[in-house]
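Entry:
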Amino acid sequence: MSDTTFDTIIVGAGTAGSLLANRLSAERSQRVLLLEAGRKDDYHWIHVPVGYLYCIGNPRTDWLYQTEPDAGLNGRRLRYPRGKTLGGCSSINGMIYMRGQARDYDGWAEQVGDEAWRWENVLQAFRRHEDHWRLDQPGQADEAFARLHGNRRTGSSGEWRVERQRLRWDILDAFAQAAQQAGIPATDDFNGGDNEGVGYFEVNQKNGWRWNTAKAFLRPTCYGRPNFELWTHAQATRLLLARQEDGSLRCTGVQVWTGSEMVTAHATREVILSAGAINSPQLLQLSGIGPGALLKRHGIEVLHELRGVGANLQDHLQIRAVYKVQGAPTLNQLASTLYGKARIGLEYALRRTGPMSMAPSQLGAFTRSSADRPHPNIQFHVQPLSLDAFGEPLHRFPAFTASVCNLNPSSRGSVTIRSPRFEDAPAIAPNYLSTDEDRQVAADSLRVVRRIAAQPALARYQPEEYKPGPQYQSDEELARLAGDIATTIFHPVGTARMGRDGDPMAVLDAQMRVRGVAGLRVVDASAMPTITSGNTNSPTLMMAEMAAQWIRQGAKAAAPAA
């Protein structure tokens, strides 16, 4: 930390921040500082796929957030994991590679007023960093697949590895067949723009190891660049804002707590917040940017009022339906004995396969919650296991879990500071199931689970509904039971959203620049106007790819002529 002046400072070495650091430091004339509040990703459980069980709820790798008591969840609080290590949430998440639907991005283009966000345009950003298993050998991908995912023969090979899962389960194969019998088509690619169908998820792994963004974008590329600097154990506590001669604001740097001292880092060009949908709005609010009434209540000077900072929180709420089965091996039995655990460990040690290579969810399905829905609006994450809640022991009986979530919730929550102290976690209030529409989708989605479970393909396993329970049938009962058993699927977005000029709740413009503050962007899931229809990690990478292109173009335009 001997030199504290840089061209660009990136706050957060997670999903977006790692890619941004890679792309921006590629220009050797630009000095880039990447800040990470957590430690290096040298904890072994980060890299073993099943290690998420030991990373979530662990202060070494998780911010340990909790939600406020939620009326939609019948007063319950939820654990709200966020990655606190190099790679951020990509170091502790479910590793599922999912772009979302084309309609998501076409909707963004309409909401923010910029055609750059349309599907056909963002597709190029996805392709720029994707390294797909089907492209490993020439000729493996057909023309349609190559159009969507690139073609190695053209020299296009990115850093973000996508692989097939390295296991199969009979009960999951039977669920997939039952889903097809219930009218959901089979698919081998969820990422073509319309993700309707059932199939095994593809994952961000490499040879049976988790592939996080620190491996993909920082190591070894950035570490060898003399113009790149990484500070770990470095928590941004406040943005430095300067009033210009014309009265406008400019962000000039960041105040950083190292654990022993406060250091000021200066940025001559730009500060980029990539701290995530919880920490980015918190840092803006602590710095005097946000809803005026909130800031005044905590004694913070209102330097720039932006009502939308911390508003518009969206998340995917998963309803965990559990079915007991007969005659099918599940992880509940396999992991219940010392012999079973030893067998699992040996298989992974020898072949990098088996349950230790598992993503938290293996089989996926996208469909409609009811016939009147114009597009797939619910997603299944299906697992050959069951438990009462995340972190609790597996059940003693064989079972599978069919978690189902509303892809496009209409409920909106908030993230707000509790005090002017950066050490205090913000208040996270998702407001799940707070609209009639979301409660109806919850009830309907549980009926879809029941319809699949009743198909012939599952009959030989005699599925018996354990949760929520077949005695609950009405919309009101099912919505209330959803509140009892539902949990977050860890996809918070939207708390510093993009929007059109004149939108009073738009924190950012279409290029993710903070409105009214020069030299400041938010490039992470906070910027999403609406949540994507699926897992949100890879869409966040795409947004960073888009931002990097705009930032580099801006730097070239501002450079003095030779």
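Residues 5-45+215-313+493-557 form a domain with the FAD/NAD(P)-binding domain fold (CATH 3.50.50.60).
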